[in-house]
UniProtKB/TrEMBL annotation:
Keyword NAD found: yes
Name this protein carries in UniProt: UDP-glucuronate 4-epimerase
Cited PANTHER family: EPIMERASE-RELATED
Highest classification ranks of the organism: Bacteria, Pseudomonadati, Verrucomicrobiota, Verrucomicrobiia, Verrucomicrobiales
Source organism: Prosthecobacter dejongeii
Domain of life: Bacteria
Pfam families assigned to the protein according to its UniProt record, in alphabetical order: GDP_Man_Dehyd
Length: 323
């Protein structure tokens, strides 16, 4: 199968490409901007391991003409759209950038897919779309009446665009709501990355609130299982939505303790108030994904964090700055 993976040099994308190559039978193209949201050397290191097994297209999703040329050259049968401006707090500071990349960029991809006749489109959404959802665990059937950050808004807009293109043009779209993905190669701005680096260096970590906020942490290998399941999902509605979570809610206090154990050092805490835009709890009902995508998350936080710490130390040993 000819597959385009946007964001294929990044955290989730590089693991997805790796899995596709291992399974065999696919021609994989990576679309990535290699921007400086975090150290581009990390992404280039990820891609270097693929050697000549993939085609790499470096450019911006907002460049409609470039996106169109990539599709015309690749004649893709499926798209796994993982590229995005990510993060709740940065989206509050730069909402226009998030709107351009996440909404306009997704539109450009769907338009290009329509024009070449690509009929399968997997879209990476986010648990952030649930906002302050008081019903736990979160289900795909829950009504979403209000998002609380520009990032979440752009992801909800992406889901709606997928629905439009399914209805109007017959493109099978599968939207995946990721719940706090972590593991080797993850972005340096994510909590586990930042806390690991700062604890290892003996520097203070910012702790927002009392540490009772909780997240459904999902290990990267489990998430990729769900993505591959979505790639091969051909039944059901022409536009469908799935939660992909680890089904293990972990408080901020417990996360810090787990990282301390993984690094072998105690954290220095810099206490701060709760941050606007942060949701107090995420918890995924993954029963639908279990049934239809054969999604079975197995990795616990006590297993996953040491795997990240090992990768972090390997990168440091190779002279790659995790920042």
């Amino acid at each position: 199968m000819k597959i385009l993976v946007t964001g294929g040099a990044g955290f989730i994308g590089s693991h997805t490409v790796e899995r596709l190559l291992k399974s065999g039978g696919h021609e994989v193209t990576i679309f990535d901007s290699f921007n400086d949201y975090y150290n581009p050397a990390i992404k280039r290191s990820n891609v270097r391991h693929f050697g000549g097994q993939v085609t790499v297209q470096e450019g911006e999703l907002t460049d409609a003409a470039f996106v169109r040329r990539v599709f015309e050259q690749g004649q893709f049968e499926a798209v796994i759209h993982l590229a995005a401006r990510a993060g709740v707090r940065p989206s509050i500071e730069q909402p226009e950038l998030y709107i351009d990349t996440n909404i306009k960029g997704t539109f450009n991809l769907l338009e290009a897919a329509r024009k070449i006749g690509c009929k399968h489109f997997v879209f990476a959404s986010s648990s952030s779309v649930y906002g302050v959802n008081k019903k736990v665990p979160f289900s795909e059937e829950d009504p979403i009446l209000q998002t609380i950050s520009p990032y979440a808004m752009t992801k909800m807009a992406g889901e709606q665009m997928c629905s439009n293109y399914s209805h109007l043009y017959g493109i099978k779209t599968v939207c995946l709501r990721f719940f706090t993905v972590y593991g080797p190669r993850q972005r340096p701005d994510l909590a586990i990355s930042k806390f690991t680096r700062l604890i290892d260096e003996g520097k203070p970590i910012d702790k927002f609130g009392e540490g009772h906020t909780a997240r459904d942490y999902t290990f990267i290998h489990d998430i990729v299982d769900g993505i591959i399941g979505a790639l091969h999902y051909r039944s059901g509605p022409i536009c469908d939505i799935f939660n992909l979570g680890g089904s293990q809610t972990v408080t901020l206090n417990d996360l810090i303790s787990t990282i301390e154990n993984g690094v072998g050092k105690k954290a220095v805490i810099h206490q701060l108030p709760e941050q606007p835009g942060d949701v107090p709890l995420t918890s995924a009902d993954v029963s639908k994904a279990r049934q239809l995508l054969n999604f079975k998350p197995t990795t616990t936080i006590t297993e996953g964090v040491p795997a990240y710490v090992e990768w972090y130390r390997q990168m440091r040993a190779e002279g790659v700055a995790i920042c």
